[in-house]
Amino acid sequence: MSDKPGAMNHLKIVSVNISETKGTIKKPVDFITITHSGVDGDAHSGPWNRQLSLLGTDSIAKFEKQAGREVRPGEFAENITLEGFDCGKAHPLDRFTCNEVEIEITQIGKECHGTSCAIFRETGDCIMPSEGVFARVLHPGRISAGDVPEFHPRMYRALVITLSDRASAGEYVDKAGARLQESLQKFFSEKGLNLFIHYSLIPDDPHKLEELVHQAKDELVDLVFTTGGTGIGPRDFTVDKIKPMLDKEIPGIMEMIRMKYGSVKPQALISRSVAGVMGKTLVFTLPGSPNAVAEYMDEILKSLQHLIYMMHGIEIH
SS3 for 51? Predict the structure, then answer.
């Protein structure tokens, strides 16, 4: 079991449950067969992101106290009833493994079926909108009550590249790269997410930049941030190298930043910074000054988590 932040130890499957009709109570069974579409024979299986659902016994216990009655496994239409599970420590893209089965969380909570939800009709309330966890199947197999799954919080990976002849030669400290790393770590920590940053300080060398970025793409690094080389000087080539490597550009982010700060500091309009998608990697090129890095990151971080989820086909509203 993992000791990383967000890890949940001592998990146990209390019950596995199936229903053939949506909005109805699921019935406990001895085992469930999980296919690439979800739970075999269950109404919620299919080619979508909520192929199966999980609920913790602690969440059920809180509801029992409020409702004044016992709640049986499956009454909230969950496929897997888990002991030791804390939904507050779970996030989209975290994974569970059990036997050969591997599933990936895609959503925390969903809108209740309301009057078509059996337990809502009886009690007037439902905990699935706030504490239900939904997942998609990565690897099929079979699980049973009594099995012991493992929870794997996602470890995000970022590459921060500073391009500077002088900083790489030791003439001054790279404050822009440090500011960028600090901003990323703070953001991920506040979200309860795990992040590993690899930092590279290189001269203004287009071939080295291209090599590092290609490697990040091949290794499925989540995020690449560069700082430096976004202007119009003779050694400013970062954008010229990165832009052709992007599969999709995200122009709105940088356009908005240029307009916001350019209205008070016209030199900000000179920046040619770009953002985009390269395979499964998000790429952002930032200017080389620490103040500019802080300004750019303030805006980029507003949509960063949403961008990451969109990259993986998860819509979070």
Answer: coil
